[in-house]
Specification:
The complex is a heterodimer of chains A (about 400) and B (about 325).
Chain A (H helix, E strand, L loop, with lengths): L8 H26 L4 H13 L2 H26 L7 H18 L5 H30 L3 H23 L37 H18 L1 H11 L1 H6 L4 H28 L10 H11 L4 H24 L6 H16 L2 H19 L9 H19 L7 H13 L1
Helix pairs in contact in A: 1-13, 2-3, 2-12, 3-7, 3-10, 3-11, 3-12, 4-5, 4-6, 4-10, 4-11, 5-6, 5-10, 7-8, 7-12, 8-10, 11-12, 11-13, 12-13
Chain B lengths: L1 H32 L7 H19 L2 H25 L4 H24 L22 H4 L5 H9 L4 H19 L1 H11 L1 H6 L4 H27 L11 H11 L4 H21 L3 E2 L3 E2 L2 H16 L21
Antiparallel strand pairs in B: 1-2
The chains are: A mainly alpha (about 400), B mainly alpha (about 325).
Chain lengths: ~400, ~325
């Protein structure tokens, strides 16, 4: 009984994110207090605005659709060990594919437009993911830096194209021609007026399919297995005969294509034309969604709904409580990223100690433990001392220790 | 003379636009040389700019404003440090969080405190750093060439500009000529060796990250209480990322950082001057192409097509003491 055990699975996938999220909301509450508003009241307005009525729910689902794609764009790359923060730029460029198809097939039927728009937007977004992937795989560039740079390059390129190429001569604003017919994605409100004026559209179902698709890809196919192997241990992947550079390029392209779906939802679902900055930071939210969702489709779906609710409820909140602006959502988003992503150790370490203690208590083996807290604390330091004696150093990370134990257990 | 004046004017605005990039890139240099990647430069700068503007507005004192800006930068850096050094979290994710935190909090607090759409009110007298005339600038003004260069280009900037340029030799000296610098660089290359030598790796990294915070805060202060008279919505506008690009372009070296930021500052100044201008033989250059150039250059350099940029070896990896 020397090392801390890894967390039980349910604690890792459920308890930890909930604790992190609670902390993020708690601090956000403090910020709300700072500007002299009641955080509980703010919270109830937010929840009502997001789920309380049809139109609000529609907006929540519309935002969530974007966040599912953005979260997938982050997570697919993340499984391959690549940190894709370029979803913003990938979605922006993908707008080209979406609008080209939308305009060209405006006179046909949406059932034809949708798959082709997915191909078009996927191709453009995929290209914008592929290049950083290629540079990372073949030239050793740092994918984080390259994707950041590609976000900015995309922004400049799109401003140029919208101003000089796509703009109608008669139009003053830098925007493309509008789709008026079949190029528009069918809105759910056309079938069900419950959703009011909200722009939730058929892309919601594409998002749901994409979530299932991701599960199937990663846990049921060889390619998914290869991607995950690469992400877990590039050396092992290499020795297993997997072409790491090929997998990096494939996963970055897939991620870019996924980000491209945001473009269809926004360009053909809301704006009906290509406008400047239509991505509006949705791509960046994907980082938070992916981290929160633990790169798993179920987690991504839940996190996307959470952020969709935050975005919609936040707008309602800004309307009802003028002291609280929309930017509060960005603060919450930042705190979620901070606590679930970067400061995970904050709760993980204490939880690991806690669960190890429970375990020791249950088995009763090794360290003598009484039921009082005093003795438990004592036993913990006991463990530390033992570890020191075993390893002959200062005990911090105990991963290899655990592994050794596991091995011994298996062999014994 | 017309052309000469134009060139002086262009170079003058280049210097003005280089300063925030230079300070932020040097800030990143300290952090990344110690092994902590920092994509949160943008956020720290923005937070620093906001803090400086608020305090300078309330107190009417530019120095208080500047120190407040640096203080806020340090607080943000501390968050980055706690997450990525103490808790050994992912440095990139921590940086992303810092950027969002600053983007959200500055507007949110600014709007609820001042109700001017996220801007801070215009600074009162004494709240803003003004241009300093160097000695003899006036007397030399009419001397051809030299006078123009001295009195327009070198003289007539605010104190932060001179501090920023003085930071380059200072940083070089500190990092390459002192024991502290050697340890800091070693921490980024081979932390285990530093640890073996009895130096606390994490403490070393904290020092570097906090210096980074102070410098980004200074960069932000320059934007809000020297270059302009108040904080504006998202006023860093990607400069933190250009600074990051410059840092990589400079291969993590102080003097190269100066040249890289001057180049990017020049591109920025030229881009403003070239808007709508027809150049002989070339025609109108789209400003977007010039805007994107720093990013494209960085991508090309990182990919090893011209030279090769290799960062500190232990960068991005939290240090775990060996048992």
């Amino acid at each position: 009984m020397s090392a801390r055990k890894p967390l039980p699975r349910w604690a890792d996938v459920a308890l930890l994110p909930v604790l992190n999220l609670t902390l993020a909301f708690f601090i956000s509450g403090l910020v709300v207090l700072m500007v002299g508003e009641n955080p509980i009241e703010a919270m109830s307005i937010l929840v009502y605005g997001a789920f309380g009525y049809g139109e609000g729910l529609g907006y929540t689902l519309h935002f969530a659709t974007n966040f599912v794609f953005a979260g997938l764009a982050f997570s697919i790359a993340s499984h391959a060990g690549q940190f894709n923060i370029g979803a913003e730029g990938q979605a922006y460029i993908a707008g080209l594919g979406a609008i080209f198809v939308g305009l060209a097939l405006d006179g046909t039927h949406w059932l034809l437009v949708l798959p082709l728009a997915m191909l078009g937007a996927g191709a453009f977004g995929g290209l914008w993911g592929f290049i950083p992937g290629y540079l990372a795989a073949k030239r050793g560039s740092h994918v984080v830096i390259t994707t950041i740079m590609f976000n900015f390059i995309a922004a400049s390129l799109m401003v140029y194209l919208l101003n000089y190429v796509l703009k109608e001569p008669s139009n003053m604003a830098p925007e493309s021609r509008s789709v008026v017919g079949a190029g528009k994605m069918p809105q759910l409100r056309e079938f069900w007026d419950f959703f009011g004026y909200s722009p939730v559209n058929v892309m919601l179902f594409v998002a749901i399919i994409a979530l299932f698709g991701m599960f199937f890809l990663f846990w049921r196919t060889e390619l998914g297995y290869k991607i995950r192997t690469l992400g877990q241990n590039p050396k092992a992947a290499h020795y297993a005969g997997i072409s790491n550079s090929k997998i990096i390029m494939i996963s970055m392209t897939l991620a870019g294509a996924m980000a491209g779906m945001i473009a269809i939802n926004e360009v053909l679902g809301v704006q009906n034309r290509l406008v400047i900055d239509f991505v509006f930071g949705y791509g960046f939210v994907g980082i938070a969604v992916g981290l929160m969702g633990r790169n798993h489709p179920i987690g991504i779906a839940l996190a996307a709904i959470l952020f969709g609710a935050l975005y919609q409820g936040g707008q309602e909140l800004a309307f009802m409580m003028p002291a609280i602006t929309r930017e509060m959502i960005i603060v919450i988003q930042a705190l979620v990223i901070l606590f679930t992503g970067a400061m995970e150790g904050l709760f993980r370490t204490p939880l690991e100690i806690f669960f190890t203690m429970i375990d020791v208590n249950k088995n009763g083996g090794g360290v003598p433990v009484s039921s009082t807290g005093q003795a438990l604390v004592g036993s913990e330091s006991d463990q530390r001392r033992q570890k020191k004696e075993n390893g002959g150093g200062v005990g911090v990370g105990s991963e290899s220790d655990q592994r050794r134990q596991k091995k011994e257990k298996q062999e014994g | 003379m017309e052309i000469f004046n134009n060139i002086i004017f262009l170079l003058d605005s280049m210097i003005r636009l280089t300063v925030p990039l230079l300070l932020a890139a040097l800030a990143g240099l300290y952090s990344e040389r110690s092994g902590v990647f920092d994509i949160g430069l943008e956020g720290k700068m923005l937070a620093g700019a906001f803090g400086a503007a608020v305090v300078a507005y309330l107190s009417g004192n530019m120095w208080l404003g500047m120190f407040a800006g640096m203080g806020i930068g340090i607080v943000m850096a501390l968050i980055h440090g706690i997450a990525s050094i103490t808790f050994r979290g992912n440095q990139i994710i921590a940086g992303v969080a810092i950027n969002f935190l600053a983007a959200g909090l500055t507007v949110f607090l600014g709007q609820s405190w001042f109700k001017q759409g996220g801007r801070t009110p215009a600074l009162p007298e004494g709240g803003r750093f003004l241009a300093i005339d160097l000695p003899f600038a006036d007397a030399l003004k009419d001397v051809p060439i030299v006078g123009g260069i001295y009195s327009e280009l070198i003289s007539g900037h605010n104190i932060i500009v001179y501090i920023a340029f003085a930071m380059v030799p200072f940083t070089y000296w500190l990092l390459f000529k002192t024991r502290f610098g050697l340890r800091l660089r070693a921490t980024g290359e081979n932390p285990k060796a530093v640890d073996t030598a009895g130096v606390n790796v994490n403490f070393m990294r904290y020092k570097a990250v906090l210096i980074c915070g102070a410098l980004t805060g200074l960069a932000g202060s320059y934007l809000s209480i020297a270059l302009s008279a108040g904080f504006g919505l998202n006023m860093t506008a990607g400069m933190g990322f250009i600074a990051l690009a410059a840092l990589i372009f400079a291969k993590w070296r102080p003097w190269y950082v100066l040249w890289a930021t001057l180049l990017f500052g020049f591109l920025n100044a030229a881009q403003i001057r070239l808007q709508g201008v027809e150049l002989p033989y070339i025609g109108e250059v789209p400003v977007q192409a010039i805007q994107a150039l720093p990013y494209i250059l960085t991508v090309v350099l990182l990919a090893g097509f011209i030279g090769k940029a290799v960062g500190p070896k232990a960068g991005g990896i939290p240090y775990v003491k060996e048992r």
